[in-house]
């Protein structure tokens, strides 16, 4: 299980990386926005994408849309972990095809629940 | 100064009214020399007012520039400008919070294997200890167990001291809150000051608009602003008054409810 973590703040990437490791996911890579994430997704055979929304250059929602529009990536499970808390935005993400939405600040428990739920659905 | 503005504007308006009456009277009488004279006078009053208001506005702008030390022609303006100073202060806050977060995470990452190691060894010793209590082990095995217990005790003492030191360092790493809090308070004061000065400039500029008869497309500007805000794909960052707004979720439970209502 290879996971890509996309966030423009290195501290947040580190927090998510640590939480994922506690959940048993040790194979992770990091990118600081959509433009650096996309080429990694194309070449890296990732199984899961965790992304922030608000980032310079290419935002998380645009990254999500790019992933869904790409034939090779469109089935990749995407979890959004973001401070964006407007109802319209959550609906927008849902319509763009997000698999889960975690609003910051979050707990380890919430992250675990959402990831497990996504895998249940993907495998089931 | 605001008082002057109002009286100046009122003066212009009363002149305008009285001259308008004279103007129609002269027009009706067919006295065109007077008509031209009145129009000329009106123009003069308007121009005088306009020059005065533009003058005041320029002076205030100049004062604002001096106050905030924004003039790039002044030597060392970069170092003394309050705005670039504020920008630097905020960058300092970002650096400090990032450093504190990384320091804390470094220490937590160092603590985790120590704690896990202690727990694992305690568990394994506990199994052996139960066997000993049930008299299931022989003299050789007991000597091994005693040796392990001795090592474990020594290691616990050492690891305990290490953990306690790390916990203290984690505590100390939170000192950024005090330092960044002070910096942010100063920047907040500056922002308030800039806002009130901008407001003053805007009031003076509106006086110029009045004399010059300039009309702004406020609705167009507002529509433009709202359009920009609607482009949500850029993201807005954390919401400050989430609990007081209907269009914002107040936590993960709200998100889950919303998503399940959408069939997730």
UniProtKB/TrEMBL annotation, chain A:
Q: Which CDD domains does UniProt cross-reference here?
A: REC_CheY_CheY3
Question: Does the entry feature the keyword Magnesium, yes or no?
Answer: yes
Q: Which Gene3D superfamilies match?
A: 3.40.50.2300
**Could you tell me the keywords of this UniProt record?**
Cytoplasm, Magnesium, Metal-binding, Phosphoprotein, Two-component regulatory system
* Record-level GO BP terms: phosphorelay signal transduction system
Single annotated GO MF = metal ion binding
Ranges where the Response regulatory domain occurs: 2-119
Cofactors needed by this protein, per the record, are: Mg(2+)
Chief location bin = cytoplasm
Q: What cellular component terms from Gene Ontology apply here?
A: cytoplasm
Protein name as annotated: Two-component system, chemotaxis family, response regulator CheY
Organism, by scientific name, is Pseudomonas kuykendallii
TrEMBL record, chain B:
| Pfam families in UniProt | CheZ
- Describe its assembly: Homodimer.
InterPro entries in the cross-refs: Chemotax_Pase_CheZ, CheZ_family_phosphatases
- Could you name the Gene Ontology cellular component terms for this entry? bacterial-type flagellum; cytoplasm
Q: Which PANTHER family match?
A: PROTEIN PHOSPHATASE CHEZ
Instruction: Please list where the region (Disordered) is annotated.
Output: 221-264
Feature: compositional bias, Basic and acidic residues: 221-234
Q: Where in the cell is it found?
A: Cytoplasm
Write out the entry's keywords from A to Z.
Chemotaxis, Cytoplasm, Flagellar rotation, Hydrolase, Protein phosphatase
A GO BP term, please? Answer: regulation of chemotaxis
Q: Extract one GO molecular function annotation from the record.
A: phosphoprotein phosphatase activity
Q: Which domain of life is it from?
A: Bacteria
Which species expresses this protein natively?
Pseudomonas kuykendallii
Q: What is the protein's name according to its record?
A: Protein phosphatase CheZ
């Amino acid at each position: 299980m290879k996971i890509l973590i996309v966030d423009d703040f290195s501290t947040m990437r580190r927090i998510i990386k640590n939480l994922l490791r506690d959940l048993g996911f040790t194979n992770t890579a990091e990118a600081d926005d959509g433009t650096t994430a996309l080429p990694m997704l194309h070449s890296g055979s990732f199984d899961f994408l965790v992304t922030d929304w608000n980032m310079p250059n290419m935002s998380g929602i645009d990254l999500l849309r790019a992933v869904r529009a790409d034939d090779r990536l469109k089935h990749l499970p995407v979890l959004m972990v973001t401070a964006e808390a407007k109802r319209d935005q959550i609906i927008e993400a849902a319509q763009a095809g997000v698999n889960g939405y975690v609003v910051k600040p979050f707990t380890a428990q919430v992250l675990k629940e959402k990831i497990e739920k996504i895998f249940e659905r993907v495998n089931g | 100064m605001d008082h002057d503005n109002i009286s100046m504007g009122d003066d212009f308006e009363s002149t305008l009214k009285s001259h308008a009456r004279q103007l129609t009277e002269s027009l009706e009488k067919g006295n065109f020399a007077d008509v031209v004279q009145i129009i000329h006078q009106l123009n003069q009053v308007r121009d005088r007012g306009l020059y005065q208001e533009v003058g005041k506005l320029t002076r205030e702008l100049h004062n604002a520039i001096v106050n905030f030390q924004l003039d790039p022609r002044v030597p060392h303006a970069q170092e003394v400008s309050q705005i670039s100073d504020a920008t630097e202060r905020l960058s300092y806050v970002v650096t400090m919070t990032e450093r504190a977060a990384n320091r804390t995470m470094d220490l937590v990452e160092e603590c985790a294997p120590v704690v896990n190691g202690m727990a694992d060894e305690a568990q394994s010793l506990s199994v052996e200890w139960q066997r000993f209590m049930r008299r299931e082990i022989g003299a050789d095995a007991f000597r091994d167990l005693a040796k392990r217990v001795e090592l474990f005790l020594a290691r616990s003492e050492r690891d305990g001291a290490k953990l306690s030191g790390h916990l203290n360092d984690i505590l100390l790493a939170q000192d950024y809150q005090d330092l960044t809090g002070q910096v942010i308070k100063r920047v907040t004061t500056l922002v308030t000051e800039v806002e009130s000065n901008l407001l003053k400039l805007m009031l003076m500029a509106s006086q110029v608009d009045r004399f010059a008869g300039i009309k702004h497309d406020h609705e167009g500007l507002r529509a433009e602003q709202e359009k920009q805000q609607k482009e949500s794909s850029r993201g807005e960052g954390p919401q400050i008054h989430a609990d007081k707004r209907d269009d914002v979720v107040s936590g993960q439970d709200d998100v889950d409810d919303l998503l399940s209502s959408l069939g997730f």
